[in-house]
Amino acid sequence: MNETIGVLIADDQPKVLRSFAAVLNAQPGLRVLATAGDGADAVRLARATHPDVALLDIRMPELDGIEAARRILRTERTRIIMITTFDLDDYVYDALVAGASGFLLKDVRAADLASAVRTVAGGDALLAPTVTRRLIAEFARQRRRPPQDFGLTPRETEVLRLLARGGSNAEIAAELVVSEHTIKSHVARLLAKLGLRDRTQAVIHAYESGLITPAIEHGCGDSSRPLA
Q1: What is the CATH number of domain 5-131?
Q2: What is the topology classification, in CATH, of domain 136-217?
Q3: pLDDT-based confidence at 86, cuts 50/70/90?
Q4: Domain range list for the chain
Q5: Is the pLDDT of residue 113 over 90?
Q6: Residue 134: pLDDT above 90?
Q7: How many Cα atoms occupy the beta-carbon half-sphere of 16 within 13 Å?
Q8: How far is CA 202 from CA 96, 165, 190, in A?
Q9: 136-217 and 5-131 share a CATH fold
Q10: What mean pLDDT is reported for the chain?
């Protein structure tokens, strides 16, 4: 990643584009490379400017944000953050499955917006403050897949389970009594074996495969911290 984080913003509301661009351009180390008013333009501009992070509105004309994310990720190493008006938008789960690293609400505070861009650019994933893994649990339960053998070792399976329940690398390391570096290695290997982009998709996989169930997840806090 470059020292300066390049950002693309796509939203069909000019006010949102201006506001987000002004906030991010005022932050050290962040630069808005382009803005788009629809999904098709977002894809074109992403391929022209190669942003580190793209903020995509879920609902846009010409091409919705989910399909725009899919097309951008086919050719770019861009990290995607979806932005939406509704905290329980039915499309959020599809966006995460499509490869988004997380999502934010349009009324996000300026400091949180900048922090989210830096978090995702650094390789972590995030969820909006009012949205927890219960959203993933609900949709994943509806799309449960038959059990499959992905070649994970017992330890990698345990790390995935703890990761999906919200554990940080440090917390998982403490529970398994190993170093944090060891957990990072396990996470990298299990992501590679499962063909997943990041920890958000690992959470989705854990629910869809039945490794984690909503009953187990019930009671987790409504934390908005990165899944790091």
Answers
A1: 3.40.50.2300
A2: Rossmann fold (3.40.50)
A3: low
A4: 5-131, 136-217
A5: yes
A6: no
A7: 22
A8: 10, 11, 9
A9: yes
A10: 82
The CA-CA-CA angle for residues 64, 67, 68, to 5°, reads 80
Q: What's the pLDDT band for 146 if we cut at 50, 70, 90?
A: low
DSSP character string of the chain: --SSEEEEEE-S-HHHHHHHHHHHHTSTTEEEEEEESSHHHHHHHHHHH--SEEEEESS-SSS-HHHHHHHHHHH---EEEEEES-TT-TTHHHHHHHT--EEEETT--HHHHHHHHHHHHTT--B--TT--HHHHHHHHHHTPPPP------HHHHHHHHHHHTT--HHHHHHHHTS-HHHHHHHHHHHHHHHT-SSHHHHHHHHHHTTSS-HHHHTT-----S---
Judge whether residue 151 has pLDDT over 80.
yes
> Does the pLDDT value for residue 81 go beyond 70?
yes
Kindly state the average pLDDT of the residues 127-142.
58
